[in-house]
Amino acid sequence: MKAVVIAGPQARPQLEERPRPMPGRGEVLIGVRACGVCHGDLMVQAGAFPFARYPVVPGHEIAGIVAAVGEDVDGLQKGARVGLSALGSSCGRCDLCLAADEFLCPELEFTGVTRDGGYAEFVVADADYVAPLPDTLAFADAAPLMCAGLTVYSALRRSGFKPGDRVAVIGLGGLGHLGVLYARAMGGRVAVLSTTAEKEAAARELGAELFIPTKTRAAAEALQAWEGGADLILATAPSVESARSAFAGLAPNGMLVLLGVGPGELSLNPMALIMGRRRVMGSPAGSRKELHEALQFAASHGVRPRLTQFPLAAAAEALAQMHDNRLRGRAVLMPE
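Now predict its structure.
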């Protein structure tokens, strides 16, 4: 089979020919039909995950068809449409796992980081961590929902979001545009903050009622003018400064949720934090339960990502375009 491999930190992804893997006990083999390109894959290439195991096939936004089933697998048959997220497996025994919070498990296996992922024609997966795909979701549409979609869905659910809340989304890239789509579909009112003024038309098209070009308008002041501030800020851009500058734009009892990972440290005005009873939360991707919910919600509410498709052999180019901020929406590799 063909697979894209990153040999080590700072290495360029290389297309290789590898033997087709076989599923072991409790595993399935997935024939990959689409794999999203995530900022986390750039972090693997950069060596930003100290726990990564090289050489590795990256990719954790996987949609495909079960090609083979290992022993002791119940409920999955050859030909089933499935997806696999960054949550490759967890211990299943700790308090976090038992509370359906497996992504925080200290024994987490991270698809495409600690085990081979979906930049390949086939990938082996733990059957218990594979999610069924709704029939109405095309493979290419489903792939980005396995991480980017799940991440914003989980953040909205865990932040205490309510329909009618004002949600400010920082950044309109692959993660941010899904934040807009999910927030709108869940009944939120949305503002988009971006350093690129030319993205206003795209933000409006996705359903944003307010666009704030942060190079010419102060983010916090503009948000406070939005009926007293945002109830929730989803910081999807990999910029600590953008999150810091928007924080004072929260309404009282509002929450800043950090989703994008970038260099630097976040410093906040303690008076703004205390006097507004404002909160800050980091949020990674979600649990298996949330993944099922996010997929079903997207299928039934018309949440479909904006896509740029690439052949598998062009994975390095897709990553380069993401790194240079040249992508529109979410990049998806199509092995076939």
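The mean pLDDT is 96.
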